[in-house]
Amino acid sequence: MLIIRHCRPKRRRRRETDVGAGSWSPARWALWSAPSVVVGYVLAVDALAIAVLGGSLVGVDIASGDWIRFAALAAGSAIHIEAGREIDRLRWSAAEGATYVNLKAMWVFASVLILPLPLAIAITALSYLHSWSRLRRSAPHRNVFSASTVVLASAAAVVCLTTLNPDGHPGYTGGAIGLVAVSVAATAYWFINYTLVVGAVVLSNPDSSARKALGQLSDQFLVAGAIGLGITTAALLIYQPWLAVAQLITVLGLHRALLVGQFQTAARTDSNTGLANTVFWHEIATKELERARNNHTPLGVLYLDLDHFKAINDTHGHLAGDQVLKAVAAELKHDVRTGDLVGRLGGEEFAILLPNASPDETTNAAERIRRRIAGLVITVTTQRGPATVDGLTCSIGAATYPTAGHTLDGLLLAADTATYTAKSSGRNRVITAPHVHAN
């Protein structure tokens, strides 16, 4: 399924929902600042989806068995989203300005085949709402638009099924004719969703290449696989419902085994700390800054440098120093929100990306991290046996887009300069970069 792309914390003093990708209040959507052609296109698709929903409610007959299958598909979708949440967050960030492919079609297309259309639309709404609430990687209007394209794609699939099935049945009827009907419906489902999303990507990113907007061919194979899984899920729920549990376990296992390995390699993590290395951190930071610019939302950057780290290596050895870095990295990962990204830039220097964080939120996050680092007590291994490292401190520079800079290089320079000021002012403190004015 295509949509627009435009570590659970161990201990946390703020809820994940404190900062999100925009407000659900339509009056505050970033959509209204987009070109009029984009606004018109998005609203037209949303309105058509609402019309389809209204039309589907006329004379609908929902049996008790439909509600049971609805509950099964809703539960499967929720489990799938939770299991792949961290993977999808990385994939989403890497797809700015292009189509983004997910596996929701496994559940949505299955619902199209075996449920009345209103319930299939409800599955779509629930899966997109759940995904948005957990990932918060998309502005609300984009999430609504993406769900609307799926509603229209589902309606097209139902029309195909109703037209091609001998008795006008809207769902899966089995047999050779049923296979043809399902194949045509699947093609229509994919084509409507793909065309609408590509249209929005092209209109929203006129400077992006057409090839990037169309996405990779491999992505379409992934969509085909998700739709195929949807067909088998539907068949299992009709004829062997308990075996659907086995399919869910299989899909989750393959999803994590294949995609986790793929994205651990693609993410280019730092081998010592497990954090994003400087190349990947800059890549994601560039994408997030582009999103912040498009959505008119803030973005925070923290530059952290451990104080007197050389003394740890000199006293306890480099092996102990590596253990301290791992402990600091673990603390940083536990203390940030799900959508934040921590990277190791080299040595004892770290960078933290805070999407949708205001200047005050960025500074507060830096102070919280500084206190957490100062409270660390780390047991390390030395040639003389176990030793304890405490009293560790850090100096942090904080910078926020657009107040402290308008480019990634500008933000990093502002944060780095603020860190240097913190060092020269006595260390163990946070310095916020001053505001700058646009040229």
From TrEMBL:
<dbReference type="GO" id="GO:0043709">
    <property type="term" value="P:cell adhesion involved in single-species biofilm formation"/>
</dbReference>
<feature type="transmembrane region" description="Helical">
    <location>
        <begin position="144"/>
        <end position="164"/>
    </location>
</feature>
<keyword id="KW-0812">Transmembrane</keyword>
<feature type="transmembrane region" description="Helical">
    <location>
        <begin position="105"/>
        <end position="132"/>
    </location>
</feature>
<feature type="domain" description="GGDEF">
    <location>
        <begin position="297"/>
        <end position="435"/>
    </location>
</feature>
<feature type="transmembrane region" description="Helical">
    <location>
        <begin position="176"/>
        <end position="201"/>
    </location>
</feature>
<keyword id="KW-1133">Transmembrane helix</keyword>
<protein>
    <submittedName>
        <fullName>GGDEF domain-containing protein</fullName>
    </submittedName>
</protein>
<feature type="transmembrane region" description="Helical">
    <location>
        <begin position="221"/>
        <end position="242"/>
    </location>
</feature>
<dbReference type="Pfam" id="PF00990">
    <property type="entry name" value="GGDEF"/>
</dbReference>
<dbReference type="InterPro" id="IPR000160">
    <property type="entry name" value="GGDEF_dom"/>
</dbReference>
<dbReference type="InterPro" id="IPR029787">
    <property type="entry name" value="Nucleotide_cyclase"/>
</dbReference>
<dbReference type="InterPro" id="IPR050469">
    <property type="entry name" value="Diguanylate_Cyclase"/>
</dbReference>
<dbReference type="GO" id="GO:0052621">
    <property type="term" value="F:diguanylate cyclase activity"/>
</dbReference>
<feature type="transmembrane region" description="Helical">
    <location>
        <begin position="38"/>
        <end position="60"/>
    </location>
</feature>
<dbReference type="GO" id="GO:1902201">
    <property type="term" value="P:negative regulation of bacterial-type flagellum-dependent cell motility"/>
</dbReference>
<keyword id="KW-0472">Membrane</keyword>
<dbReference type="GO" id="GO:0005886">
    <property type="term" value="C:plasma membrane"/>
</dbReference>
<dbReference type="InterPro" id="IPR043128">
    <property type="entry name" value="Rev_trsase/Diguanyl_cyclase"/>
</dbReference>
